Amino acid sequence: MDLLSVKDLHAQIDGKNILNGIDLSVKKGEVHAIMGPNGSGKSTLSNVIMGHPKFVVTKGSISFEGKDVLELSPDKRSRLGLFLSFQYPFEVQGLGFSKFLFSAYKARFPNKKISVLDFQKLLKSKAEALHMTPEFTKRELNVGFSGGEKKRAEILQLMMLEPKLAILDETDSGLDIDSLKLVAESVNRLRGPDFSAIVITHYKRILNYLKPDVVHVLSEGRIVASGDMSLADELEANGYKTVLQKSAMGRGAEK
Ligand SMILES: Nc1ncnc2c1ncn2[C@@H]1O[C@H](COP(=O)(O)OP(=O)(O)OP(=O)(O)O)[C@@H](O)[C@H]1O
Ligand SMILES: [Mg+2]
Hints:
GO terms for molecular function: ATP binding; ATP hydrolysis activity. Keywords: ATP-binding, Nucleotide-binding. It comes from Candidatus Iainarchaeum sp. InterPro entries: AAA+_ATPase (IPR003593), ABC_transporter-like_ATP-bd (IPR003439), ABC_transporter-like_CS (IPR017871), FeS-cluster_ATPase_SufC (IPR010230), P-loop_NTPase (IPR027417). The chain has 255 residues and is of the alpha/beta class. The protein has one domain (4-254): P-loop containing nucleotide triphosphate hydrolases (Rossmann fold), CATH 3.40.50. The protein has 10 helices and 10 strands. The chain has helices at 42-50, 74-80, 97-108, 116-129, 134-138, 147-161, 177-190, 204-210, 229-238, 241-254, and strands at 4-13, 16-26, 31-35, 56-64, 67-68, 82-85, 165-169, 196-200, 214-219, 222-227. It has a 6-stranded mixed sheet with strand order 6-7-8-3-9-10, sandwiched between helices. Strands 2-1-4-5 form a 4-stranded antiparallel sheet, with helices on one face. A hairpin with a 2-residue loop joins strand 4 and strand 5 (67-68). The site of adenosine-5'-triphosphate has 13 residues, from strand 2 and helix 1.
């Protein structure tokens, strides 16, 4: 059974069609990469999978572990083990980072009885693994964090919440070379039969570390090509033009 199964997904925002029939299946333990031009719908797809209320699903289905999630709130989806690392993490004034993480942790693992002290110890060890000082987690969530610090804060959440499926929306953008390697290594350490990921990126560099099982290209709200790492190599070498032309020719032949 697929861990995530997206079928013929269509979605709109403010009456404008953004996703025009997405089919995507992610199995347990797999890492998929999604590439695609700016504005092609990658972040929209992530938001729709997480249940962002702004987007209206007009057709199609999303199931996670065989369960239809379309009617579930984002909160419920994250409890099931879905996680999104935002392309643009929000600054939340007045909400302490560690306090936020503690509530998120309790919501994700309602049966784990963890004391505040043990939670703090766990958080400290995970933060250190990401070379984040404990002072960080005492600050307000993302407030005044640099671009790269926000991305690392997202990965810290990922490591604490141990999702079954993590969607990383351009987590690599804005990370310095060492941080990128650190983040990729952290994600690689999570890899195993109970962890899958969808990695959205514009660049091959992070994929060299993560070695995705499948690479997809999204264009105008559709997946127009899927393949292995050689697809990412081709895009890096030639840009999107050739891949998009091939797919348009393929669609022409279907008609
Ligand atoms: N709130 C909104 N109102 C109007 N249009 C929107 C809104 N949100 C997204 N869109 C449009 O949906 C399209 C897809 O946007 P999306 O953010 O999913 O692209 P993307 O593939 O993630 O691009 P990028 O690589 O730049 O991050 C864009 O044309 C965008 O302008
Ligand atoms: Mg985006």
